[in-house]
Amino acid sequence: MTMDLQAVLKEHFTFDFFRPGQKESIESALKGQDTLVILPTGSGKSVCYQLFPYLLRGTTLIISPLISLMQDQVDKIRLRGEKRVCALNSSLTKIERAYIRSNIKAYKFIYLSPEMLAQSYVLDLLQQIHINLLVVDEAHCVSQWGMDFRPDYLQIASFRQALNNPALMALTATARPAVQDQIMSLLDFDPDQSQVIKAKIDRPEIKYSFEEVEDKDQRLFELVKNLKKPGLVYFSSKKQADRIAQALVQRGFRAESYHADKSDYDKRVIQNQFLAQQIQVVCATSAFGMGIDKKDIRFVIHYHMPGDPEVYLQETGRCSRDGRAGLALCLYQRGDEKLQAKLKLKSIPQAQTIQFVFRKPQQVKDKDDNQYKLIKYFYDQGWSLEDTLAFFYRRKQYILNQVQFMRSLVDSDRCIRQSLLAYFGDQSVHHDSFCCSVCQPGIEKQFYGQESQEGDNLEIRPVDKILRSLYNPMYNQ
Q1: pLDDT of residue 144
Q2: By residue range, what is the domain housing residue 191?
Q3: Residue 64 in contact with residue 70, Cβ under 8 Å?
């Protein structure tokens, strides 16, 4: 069957051309191959699977790790004029869930949160329809070495078998070679019918800077005052994000904090206001950004040093999606690495917890806790207690090595871009001196100036009607 993919792209997305990696990914999936897609942030990964329902009959099923990311994608599809889309997740009301169940055969796109994989009614529901493609978004969540490992993702391979083995596409922006191998192994890729589509992860328009400072607040306020806006400031603490956002408002900036403790409604309002230029600066934890496609973010500042390169590359990748130069600046204060190590090591269960699960697995089978789920997974897979303890010891060392790598960027005399990309196995980096704070000390001053005035006089208008239409799966079907 011959298809004019370019014409379908133009009809449904109004784009004239595919970006690097998109067409190749679609063609691989159309051949029925298991496809791992590794494209940089802002490169249009969603096009790789959102074009699929217009090419083959049936429904495209997308497993997505965050409800906010899922809802953002659903909103964008609806705003494009496609109403045959829904999201199955734990936030649905009984009425919404019943509506989706009764109309399940009408949808071209179904988004599914990973915790729903364990719900038997979900499998029964999806077995009633033809799945033309199973998509695993943010596929690094599959890997135990990835930054956001989710035990629920370990069920995907068996879930796929129960759906009659549809073609599989896994997508991520960052994955080292070892992580790529583990993604393909845990998702049970067919070694004879699989392909890896990979584009260069370098974003030359993003300029990197690391600064060691004594007073982070003072330096941050100075930067926000001088840098072109809009921008993001990332924190490892919800309390600090709230505090700094309030301090910025007191200094006359339009700022808001965003983190997991905010209600879904408040999160959506903040996202929309930021997209509409009504907010200049968002002070956020890692809960913000995934799936947020704002083209003109001019800076991303990390108030706390990130704990690993994957997080850093993902979060700085929110910057400069319009192709214009932007700044990614990390503030470092002695002791930051200890904070990150402490936060990241919380994911590692204690030896006595592992031993307890292996002695009394029936007592933890219904516990909704990632640590218990992961230990129980190893137990169910026939791992020995000794091998499981050794695995978590290796993971602990891996985490500490990641933190140490990020710390090394603070005072290294090697180009930051070269160091980052080499970590991900990309040695072919060519750049001029306008690259990072090592290649050009004081590079942040190149971004001083006034932001666009486009949104300065906009009122914070009510968005209840818009939000209601976007959230409701029954709206405008």
Answers
A1: 60
A2: 5-198
A3: yes
Q: State the DSSP string of 184-204.
A: HHHTT--TTSEEEEE-----T
Backbone phi, then psi, for 405, in 5-degree steps?
-60, -45
Say how many CA atoms lie within 13 Å of 426 toward its Cβ: 18
Q: How far apart are CA 60 and CA 304, in angstroms?
A: 38
Q: What are the DSSP E strand ranges found in 119-229?
A: 131-136, 168-172, 194-198, 206-212
Distances, alpha carbon 140 to alpha carbons 34, 59, 153, 244, 331, in Å? 16, 24, 10, 31, 26
My answer on whether 39 and 165 are in the same domain is: yes
Q: Is residue 85 situated within a structural domain? A: yes
For residue 372, being part of any structural domain is answered with no
- Pick from 342, 281, 276: which is nearest to 307 by CA? 342
Count of CA atoms in the C-beta half-sphere (13 A) of 59: 25
Question: Cα–Cα distances in Å, from 305 out to 140, 315, 338, 372?
Answer: 21, 12, 10, 29
For residue 77, give Cα distances in angstroms to 219, 298, 476: 40, 26, 13
- For residue 389, how far is the Cα from the chain centroid? 29
* Distance between CA atoms of residues 349 and 353, nearest Å: 6
238 domain-assigned = yes
- pTM greater than 0.70: yes
* CATH for 329: 3.40.50.300
Query: Is the separation of the CB atoms in 307 and 235 below 8 Å?
Result: no
Q: How far apart are CA 260 and CA 284, in angstroms?
A: 9
Count of residues making up the chain: 477
Phi, psi of 86 (to 5 degrees): -150, 170
Type of residue at 234 = Y
Same-domain check for residues 122 and 239: no
- In whole angstroms, give the CA distance from residue 271 to residue 464: 14
How do residues 266-284 score in pLDDT, each as one tens digit?
888 998 899 899 999 999 9
Is residue 300 helix, strand or coil? strand
Q: ∠ CA 50-56-59 to the nearest 5 degrees?
A: 60
Looking at the fold, whether 193 and 216 belong to one and the same domain comes out as no
**Closest Cα to residue 254, out of 271, 279, 273?**
279
pLDDT beneath 70: ranges in the chain: 1-2, 144-150, 289-292, 450-477
In a domain, residue 300? The reply is yes
Out of 282, 305, 338, pick the residue that ends a domain.
Answer: 338
